[in-house]
Amino acid sequence: MTPENSSPFVRELNELRRGRGLDATDLHQRIGPCLRAACSIVDADPPAVARRKLVLRLTELCGGLPADLRLAAQAAFGLHEEAAGEFLDRRISWLAGALDRDPRTARRRIDMAFRLLDELLGDPARNRGGSSPDGWYVESVRSMLRLDHDPPDLQEERRIVAEVDELDELTLSLSVPALRGFEELPDIGADVLFGGEIVETRQVSASHAQFVMRLPNPLRLGQRHEYGIRFAPQRSEIRPYYVLTPLRRCEKFSVRVRFDRARPPARVWRLNGVPPRVVDDGVDSGDRLTVNRVGEVVLEFHELHQGLSYGLQWSFTEE
Q1: Rounded to a whole number, what is the largest CA-CA distance in the chain?
Q2: What is the distance between the alpha carbons of residues 215 and 227, in angstroms, rounded to a whole number?
Q3: DSSP 3-state assignment of 10?
Q4: Residue 252 · residue 295 · CB < 8 Å
Q5: Residue 61, CA distances (Å) to 116, 123, 292 in order
């Protein structure tokens, strides 16, 4: 039952969880006016577009909840892949098993999750720009670049969100320009650590490669997926920077660079959303960073803008 004094958002969320949740065939008719406004759904949107806007907005907001409440909300809506397509009672039974609690406790967790979503939905939706043409965006990137071996080694762990149904492949890119005056070697390899397999490698140029990665299973609209990948450029020296320049929506980026302690840089500086040309020109931002005693620098960025570069740059000279 829904308390009479619950907020309009909570009442509308409770309406969505009935039956098959977000998989209901009449979903577009059950989206209340408050949710329509919060998800930027307009009257002219066809049912598929309204569903897509709703699912992606709720997926985003569920990602900010504590782990148990995130699971509760995902089960309530049918967003979790292991509870998708089932009726509400079955989804609640699944949630109770996943939490190792009884169904009554599972329902209380859903109510708590909805109260938090009520607060988040009250904030205006941020303008995310258009969707990616290939149907996914990046929720988080964690990178580890090791410069204390030869050749350098880059490992990334990413969490992505599907913006379409039946997403089964990702195209990944890496650029590794050689030092000026050194010959470009067209040899950039990749090895998936978990979460997929490389099925095609495209050496676009001497410094740029693309990799087509097949996912373990096709993703549904709004479903998250994590994968890890190791890139291995076959060159001993690279240009003195590491940046992420997102060409699609990217919410969070954290990077750790481990330098060779026998040859540490004299200067390291942060690049916080600069044009790529600034990186190529080696302009010191003045935002100096300190290499810790084990030779590492750690940074984190949020809400990255497409087309700008984020990361760090270094120099082995003082000026």
Answers
A1: 73
A2: 9
A3: helix
A4: no
A5: 9, 11, 35
- Cα separation, 78 vs 68, in Å, equals 15
Model confidence pLDDT, tens digit, residues 56-90: 999 999 988 888 999 999 999 998 888 887 899 99
Supply the DSSP symbol for 288: B
Q: What pLDDT was estimated at residue 7?
A: 87
Question: Considering only CA atoms, which of 168, 176, 119, 132 is closest in space to residue 151?
Answer: 176
Handedness of CA 118, 124, 128, 130 (dihedral sign): positive
Q: Which of 230, 253, 216 is nearest to 172 (CA)?
A: 230
> What is the rounded CA–CA span in Å between residue 236 and residue 260?
13
Amino acid at 95: L
pLDDT band at 124 (very low <50, low <70, confident <90, very high): low
Structure-token match 């930027």, residue found = 40
Which ranges constitute the DSSP H helices of 31-144? 33-38, 47-62, 67-77, 88-99, 103-121
Around Cβ 254, how many Cβ atoms within 10 Å? 15
Q: Is the pTM of this model over 0.70?
A: yes
User: Token digits for 309?
Assistant: 């570069």
Question: What distances in angstroms separate CA 180 from CA 6, 153, 201, 236, 300, one per listed residue?
Answer: 64, 20, 26, 13, 29
Is residue 227 within 8 Å of residue 158, measured between CB atoms? yes
Phi, psi of 210 (to 5 degrees): -120, 145
